[in-house]
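Please describe what follows:
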Amino acid sequence: MKGVYFVSGIDTDIGKTVATGMLAKQLLQQGKSVITQKPVQTGCQDIAEDIAVHRKIMGIPMQEADKRRLTMPEIFSYPASPHLAARLDGRALDLDKIRTATQELAAQYEIVLVEGAGGLMVPLTEKLLTIDYIQQQAYPVILVTSGRLGSINHTLLSFAALKQYGIRLHSLVFNHIHDSRDAHIAQYSLSYLKCRLKADFSEAEWMELAKTDAV
């Protein structure tokens, strides 16, 4: 594993932040040089909350790249999708700033995990969706799903979108965070999605994130 990977989810509140932090922690334990980035953080004033969570999970302090805002190049105060948060804050989202920050991180670290906002179809600007940006940058995707009701539908829709855009799926992360809602649905969702991943993206990895890993 080397390069820049985009971490997305099938929906909001699916556990992308914890999944990103846990994956970064595992890579650190393997001796890899890894950093996480939250290119657009909404609902914050100064420090990207998701980056703080990543560092806590990774067991490391805020890094020099964090202090230089390379890991959090765009922060908006209103908790909404990036395009709406930018509009309400009265300024445009700077895609060049984000690209430059990611490139600088990639030059310093072996692996960069870029955590997106929401799912693949979340608008970054009025004209650009998150999936458009991923396609432009040719980033492989790490997709986070779970076993809650509706996850199969949302996961398969995400699969279809990735295929339509010609984007490589690196891995599907099954987050057990919602298992307690309905154990039957969670277990069936796991087995079904595991089979579908093998059929639809045969080279992609299957990963699982235990609920006890959450912070």
User: Anything to note?
Assistant: The mean pLDDT is 96. The CA atoms of residues 42 and 80 lie 6 Å apart.
